[in-house]
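Can you make up a polypeptide sequence alongside its tokenized fold?
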Amino acid sequence: MQGATDLLGCDRLAVGPVQPVPKALVADLSDLPGLPHVDIVGDHDHGPRLPGGRRTVLMVSDDNFSSTRTTPFLAFAVTGITACGTP
């Protein structure tokens, strides 16, 4: 998140110009063996810290109200990230 505006502690975004975090592909879900096709990741969040310091990343897919699509919940154990506001 280097170079992005630190908004921690801001009550609202009317603080002036804001520099967003640049986007970068960190994982391609189609490269993961055994994982069914995921159309849209609708939300993601950090979960609990795991033994050894890894973090849980939780993702949920959006089925767009389709009766032919599923809504998978995915959980990954990852290294090298921190949850917002925590070391």
